[in-house]
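Renewal narrative, Specific Aim 1. Our central claim is that a sequence can be written position by position from structural information alone. The example that follows is taken directly from our test logs and has not been curated for this report. It begins with the structure tokens describing the chain, in the order in which they were read.
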């Protein structure tokens, strides 16, 4: 009778087997489970504190009885509405379950194991997560600074230089930037695009575009194959829990997604809510206005405590605590003593910052009180 074989772990691919056991973010739900208590303030994930459009909620209710059906794998109605919104062809748009999924598809489509991608050191970690996860190599030039304080911003010339030095396949730029809130004007983005080597794709993450000044958004030709723009319904539209993102690019570039995307990845509910929200321009405008007021309030709070708040074109404000030790201590004390969830970048020198999402007026009042108590002892 044959001897049963040992129950060995199946062999992983060389790329996956070499990866560390890590995720880009520790979610607030995990923090609650660890502490065995609910958070009092959830201000760390840059979600919208102002909620979704009433039209989106109504669309969700209307679509719910048909949730037994798959969503339209072509996302026809939403793509055509977005095409009209942006003045491009519908075939220049692809939908995805948030920008995070689209970043993974872009890396998969354009990088081989061993190829290089470029991003600023400390920039949005999910892009790095995908590059490493597909066996790529990252080159990470430092952020630039402005003035005597740490007003960090992406250094477009350093990104371009790194792309030439490494023959990079992709260059990632978040504009407005996460985690600093800073932004480059459109002319600087165009200068970066023109300075890249032939064949290098600029991945332009515009998740916070609705909050940005007009001059931060470059005017790009719809058929320019050198750039792909990413947008989301998670921030100003308040649909983070439904996961709706999209990419805009030259039609041949967008067509490549059909080779590898999850064609049924968009749920029927997500498509319906996003379409309704896109049509509710007053709701989005109200959120943008409320966030601007909240940014001013958070900047004043920082100044009250002798801290510097970085100028922001997003729905969050980064405050400079002076050094990483104090930033980490404030972060921990807010969580452990006050139940307040915020984040700090994990890479020096940005790790001297704390990042606070703009909450509602009552949330901002509660945060100001908790922050003041913590700063008295840290």
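The sequence written for that structure reads:
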């Amino acid at each position: 009778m044959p001897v049963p074989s040992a129950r060995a772990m199946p062999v992983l691919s060389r790329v996956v087997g070499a990866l560390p056991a890590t995720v880009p973010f520790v979610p607030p739900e995990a923090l609650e489970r660890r502490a065995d208590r609910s958070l009092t303030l959830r201000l760390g994930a840059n979600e919208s504190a102002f909620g979704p459009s009433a039209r989106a909620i109504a669309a969700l209710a209307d679509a719910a009885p048909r949730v037994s059906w798959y969503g339209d794998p072509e996302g026809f109605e939403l793509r055509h509405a977005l095409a009209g919104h942006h003045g491009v062809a519908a075939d220049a748009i692809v939908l995805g379950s948030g920008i995070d999924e689209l970043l993974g598809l872009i890396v998969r489509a354009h990088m081989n194991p061993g190829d290089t991608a470029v991003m600023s050191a400390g920039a949005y970690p999910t892009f790095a997560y995908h590059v490493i996860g597909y066996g790529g190599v990252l080159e990470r030039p430092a952020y630039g600074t402005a003035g005597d304080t740490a007003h960090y911003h992406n250094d477009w010339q350093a990104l371009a230089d790194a792309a030439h030095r490494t023959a990079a396949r992709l260059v990632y730029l978040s504009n407005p930037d996460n985690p600093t809130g800073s932004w480059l004007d459109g002319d600087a983005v165009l200068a970066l695009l023109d300075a890249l080597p032939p064949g290098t794709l600029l991945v332009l993450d515009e998740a916070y575009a609705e909050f940005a000044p007009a001059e931060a958004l470059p005017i790009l030709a719809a058929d320019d194959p050198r750039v792909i723009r990413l947008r989301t319904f998670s921030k100003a539209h308040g649909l983070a829990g439904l996961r709706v993102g999209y990419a805009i690019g030259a039609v041949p570039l967008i067509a490549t997604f059909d080779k590898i995307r999850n064609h049924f990845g968009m749920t029927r509910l997500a498509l319906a809510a996003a379409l309704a929200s896109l049509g509710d321009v007053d709701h989005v405008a109200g959120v943008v206005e409320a966030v601007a007021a909240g940014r001013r309030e958070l900047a004043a709070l920082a100044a009250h405590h002798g801290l510097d708040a970085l100028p922001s074109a997003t729905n969050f404000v980064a405050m400079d605590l002076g050094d990483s030790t104090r930033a980490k201590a404030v972060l921990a004390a807010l969580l452990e003593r006050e139940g307040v969830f915020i984040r700090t970048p994990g890479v020096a020198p940005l790790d001297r910052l704390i990042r606070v999402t703009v909450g509602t007026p009552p949330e901002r009042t509660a945060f100001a009180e908790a922050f003041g108590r913590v700063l008295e002892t840290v």
